[in-house]
Amino acid sequence: ARGNYHPTCKPIKLMSYLITLGSRPGDIVLDPFLGSGTTAIAAKMLKRHFVGYEIDPEYCKIAEARLSAVQEQLI
């Protein structure tokens, strides 16, 4: 994936597609391995709530920064 945030980073477009297959706007999306936050970003863009867990503090910082940037764009 672009940006090389994480070794297994998935495209936002793919995660968005998967989220739309299994949820509706307003639903909660769970990502127990948050990584760089791609699933959370896709969930936000699709008007879903999300819960994510990540054990690595560095990836938490990356995910937080990416989510903040997306939230500013969505406002």
From TrEMBL:
<dbReference type="InterPro" id="IPR029063">
    <property type="entry name" value="SAM-dependent_MTases_sf"/>
</dbReference>
<keyword id="KW-0808">Transferase</keyword>
<dbReference type="GO" id="GO:0003677">
    <property type="term" value="F:DNA binding"/>
</dbReference>
<dbReference type="GO" id="GO:0032259">
    <property type="term" value="P:methylation"/>
</dbReference>
<dbReference type="GO" id="GO:0005737">
    <property type="term" value="C:cytoplasm"/>
</dbReference>
<protein>
    <recommendedName>
        <fullName>DNA methylase N-4/N-6 domain-containing protein</fullName>
    </recommendedName>
</protein>
<dbReference type="Pfam" id="PF01555">
    <property type="entry name" value="N6_N4_Mtase"/>
</dbReference>
<dbReference type="InterPro" id="IPR002941">
    <property type="entry name" value="DNA_methylase_N4/N6"/>
</dbReference>
<dbReference type="InterPro" id="IPR001091">
    <property type="entry name" value="RM_Methyltransferase"/>
</dbReference>
<feature type="domain" description="DNA methylase N-4/N-6">
    <location>
        <begin position="4"/>
        <end position="64"/>
    </location>
</feature>
<dbReference type="GO" id="GO:0008170">
    <property type="term" value="F:N-methyltransferase activity"/>
</dbReference>
<keyword id="KW-0489">Methyltransferase</keyword>
